[in-house]
Amino acid sequence: MDVPASMGSAAALPGQPSRNALKILLLFLVIYSLTWAGHYTTGDGAQKVAWAKSMFLRQSADIGPGFEARYSKYGIGHSLISIPPLALAYWIRKVTGIHSESLLYTYLFIVNGAVFLALVAFYLSHLYPWRSVFWTVLIMGLATIWWPYTKSDFSEPLVLTALFAGFVLMRFFSLPAGMLVAGFAMTVRTDSVILIALLFLWALYQHRSWRTIVTLAAALLPWIALMAIANYTRWHSLTDHGYANERFSNPLLIGLYGIALSAGKSIFLFSPPLVLGVLGWNRFRTRPGLRADAWLFLGVLVSEALVYAKWWDWSGDWNWGDRFLIPGVLLMCIPAIEMLRRPVLTGLIAAAGLWVQLLAVLVSGGDYVMMFEHHKFERRALYVGGVNRVDFEDLRFNPSYSAIVGHWILVRVLLGIPPHPNPLQDTIGTRLYDTLTPEEWKQAAHWDFIWNLSRHHQENQTPTPASP
User: pTM for the full model?
Assistant: First the structure.
C-alpha cells in the first residue's frame, strides 16, 4: 500500500533526514555510553531475563527456581529481544570465561534510547531546519526522564521506540510495514494495544478505505498470534493471565492529580520540557500536514494518563517519576520545537530538566525509592508529640520527601557537602535528611556508573524486585 503524498514532505533535501538521524544516533550512543551503569536494576527485568534464558537454553517457558511464580507474567516481546545479547554473553563466557551478561543486556537500553532520538530527528528533519531539530532532540534526550531510563531495564522505553518506529515507517514509507513494526509493542506490554489503536485511527484518518483497515489489521495478526501462543504455553489460556490479581482500583481523581501535579511523581516535574511541548502543541498542530500527528501525540498522553490513573499502582514504583507515561510524555515533548522561538523560557526549562535528570543519572534512579525497603525513615510529629514513619504516600505527595529531594541529598553526600542537621524539627517539621542518620545516608550513596559496577548486582544475582 502506498502512503498518500500528503503524509510526507518535500521540504527536506534528499538524504538529509537520514544523515541527521545518523548524527543524533552516534551522538547519543556516546553520551549514553558515558553514563552507562551496566548492572541489572529490577525484579521485573529478572523475570524477563530468566524467560529469555529459558527460551534460548531450554526451549521452555518455565523460568526456573528463585521466583514466586513458575512463569514470567510479562510480555514475551521484551524477553525475545533480550535473547541476542544474552546469547552473545553465553558464547563469550563459554569461549573465554568472561562474564558479560549484565553488560550486554543493559546496553540494549542504551541503543534503544539513541535509536528513538534518531527516529525523532528523522521525523522532524522532514519538517523543520536542522538547527531546530538538533536542539529539540538534545532537550528531549538530556532534560526528560528518557536519559535515566537508558540505565534501567523497564519495558516502557522499548514500547515507545517500537511505536514511534512504526509511526515513522507509516508516515514516510509503508502503512502495513509500519504497523507491523509498531505492533511489536503489544508483545512487550499488552496494554500497548491502546496505543496501537490510536495509531490505527491516525492511519485511517490519513487514508480512509476498507483496504487500509484490512491491511493494517493483517499486519497485527502475527503479534496477536504470538501473544496467544505465549499465553497458552504459560497458562493454557489464549488470554493474558499475568495480572489476573491486580486491578484498576485507584480513585481516578487521585491518580490524575498524582500523575499531573504531585510532588513525587508529576510528569511535568520529572520532565520539565513537557511544559514546552504543551505550550507549543497548538502551533505544531496548525502547521501543514501535522494536524493528525499532533492529535496522535496528545491522544497517547491523555489515554495513558486516564488508564494508569485508575491502576492500583498508578505511580509505577519503584522508579524515577512515573514510568508508565514515558511514551506519552516523550511524544508530547516533540511539539516543544515550536517553543525554540522563545529561547529564554526554553533555556530555563531545559536547564531545570537537565538538573532533574542528572540527579537520577549520577545516582541510580531507583536508589532513593529502594531505601524505603531497607531503612526506617522517621519524622517527629508536629505539636502533638511522638514519631511518625515516612512512607510511600509521603514520597508521592509530600514535597519534603520526594525522590528529587532524596537524590539531591545522595548527590550532596557523595560530593562531601551533606546538609546540616536541623535543630528545629519540633516547630518547622523534620527534613528528609534528618529522618535517617548521616551514616545511613552515606551508606546508601553510590555513583551509578559502569566503573562502580562492583557494588551492584553481579552476573547471576537476582535484581531487586519492582512493582508491575
Answer: 0.92
Chain segment 329-376, per-residue pLDDT in tens: 999 999 999 999 999 999 999 999 999 999 999 999 999 999 998 899
Domain ranges in the chain are 13-125, 367-455
C-alpha–C-alpha distance, residues 125 and 137, integer Å: 11
